[in-house]
């Protein structure tokens, strides 16, 4: 295949509910949609789902725009390739910038699967006809407000709830949710907010009594040793998110015993190719995986759903329905969940159509490159 032109579209959508993590709060998101066109006129879409500020990862919307427009798209436009796994080789000299790479990689996969007449899930090696979705709930102003949010999503049928925690917002809200929802599949995510001070370790150990499915990323991304030490102390599995940006990171974490569960994020790993490779490596080590989200618009979330159809994704993924996030999504039909189950599209490519008029109406900036 040969991409003859490519464009980036920075699109702003308001969130239906303010989302607060240990590091920041947000009411709207700017993601960058990537549009690749090949010689036959077929179009593949991808999504760069970076946050605006460098608080989850060092990348921002602005760094992604710079790297994608200056390095990634120029490497791809005009180049010949037969398989999307080769596309990463076109920008092999670019270090890091996983979110920017992931968006272009997703677009190459969707273009390739569309042209080949297969669904993205099939192209990736997916086997499940549907995937189980969980919801990720932010830090709320009060415990009562959190309980109301949990109830709303449990009533909507989601079988798993993840709660954001931070020092000072951990044992108390988790105890309250657990006592109201004794059977709920529950887990927590600290986004690296904890240090190894005695008080903070006491709080993390205090979470061990609530039957959580996992404690996600309690310590900073590079602190694998602290995760390994905590895992030795806890019966709750430790899950890594921010720590794992490459397969090498995963290999190191496995050797250290720093995780029992892996959150696979397409964005953080730099694309669908590396996400599948992380899935395969985790399976070799009997590490269950699930697909984490970055509040993706419908393009990135459809890619996450396709990925979640691979056999190792045995835990619910953060692939909630569009209406959990946005009043209007950039794709039609929007993504829907029924009793927490999301069907995996079988149509060629992404299986959802991008609403180009809505993209244009919601666009902050755009740029186009031609061969
Ligand atoms: O750690 O998983 C995270 C959102 C922004 C930054 C980090 C994270 C999240 C989420 C969102 O939890 C999950 C979703 O997309 O539903
Ligand atoms: Mg996380």
UniProtKB/TrEMBL annotation:
**Key words of the record:** Lyase, Magnesium, Metal-binding
Q: What class of enzyme is it?
A: lyase
Q: Which GO terms describe its molecular function?
A: metal ion binding; O-succinylbenzoate synthase activity; racemase and epimerase activity
* Entry's Gene Ontology BP terms: menaquinone biosynthetic process
Enzyme Commission number: 4.2.1.113
Superkingdom of origin: Bacteria
Q: Which InterPro entries match?
A: Enolase-like_C_sf (IPR036849), Enolase-like_N (IPR029017), Enolase_C-like (IPR029065), Mandelate_racemase_C (IPR013342), Mandelate_racemase_N_dom (IPR013341), OSBS/NAAAR (IPR010197)
Q: Where is the Mandelate racemase/muconate lactonizing enzyme C-terminal domain?
A: 143-237
NCBIfam families in the record, alphabetically? Answer: menC_lowGC_arch
Listed name of the protein? o-succinylbenzoate synthase
The source organism is Jiangella anatolica
């Amino acid at each position: 295949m040969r991409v003859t032109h490519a464009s980036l579209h920075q699109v702003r959508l308001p969130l239906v509910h303010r989302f607060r993590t240990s590091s920041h709060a947000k009411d709207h998101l700017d993601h960058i949609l990537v549009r690749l066109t090949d010689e036959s006129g077929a179009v593949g879409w991808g999504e760069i789902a970076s946050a605006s500020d460098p608080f989850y990862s060092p990348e921002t919307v602005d760094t992604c725009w710079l790297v994608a427009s200056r390095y990634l798209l120029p490497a791809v436009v005009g180049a010949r390739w037969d398989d999307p796994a080769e596309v990463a080789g076109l920008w092999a000299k670019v270090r890091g910038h996983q979110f920017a790479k992931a968006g272009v990689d997703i677009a190459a996969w969707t273009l390739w699967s569309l042209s080949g007449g297969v669904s993205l899930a099939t192209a990736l090696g997916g086997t499940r006809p549907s995937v189980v979705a969980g919801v990720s709930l932010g830090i709320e102003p009060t415990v009562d407000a959190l309980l109301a949010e949990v109830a709303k999503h449990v009533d909507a049928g989601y079988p798993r709830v993840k709660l954001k925690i931070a020092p000072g917002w951990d044992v108390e809200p988790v105890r309250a949710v657990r006592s109201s929802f004794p059977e709920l599949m529950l887990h927590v995510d600290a986004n690296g907010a904890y240090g190894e001070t005695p008080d903070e370790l006491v709080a993390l150990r205090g979470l061990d009594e609530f039957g959580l499915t996992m404690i996600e990323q309690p310590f900073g991304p590079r602190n694998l040793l602290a995760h390994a030490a905590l895992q030795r102390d806890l019966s709750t599995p430790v899950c890594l998110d921010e720590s794992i940006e490459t397969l090498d990171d995963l290999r190191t974490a496995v050797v250290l015993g720093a995780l029992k569960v892996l959150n696979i994020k397409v964005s953080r790993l730099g694309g669908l190719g590396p996400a599948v490779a992380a899935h395969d490596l985790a399976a070799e080590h009997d590490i269950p995986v699930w697909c984490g989200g970055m509040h993706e618009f419908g393009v990135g979330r459809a890619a996450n759903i396709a990925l979640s159809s691979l056999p190792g994704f045995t835990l619910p993924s953060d692939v909630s329905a569009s209406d959990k996030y946005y009043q209007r999504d950039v794709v039609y039909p929007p993504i829907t969940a029924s009793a927490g189950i999301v069907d995996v599209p079988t149509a060629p490519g992404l299986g959802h159509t991008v609403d180009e008029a809505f993209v244009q109406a919601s666009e902050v900036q755009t740029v186009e490159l031609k061969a």
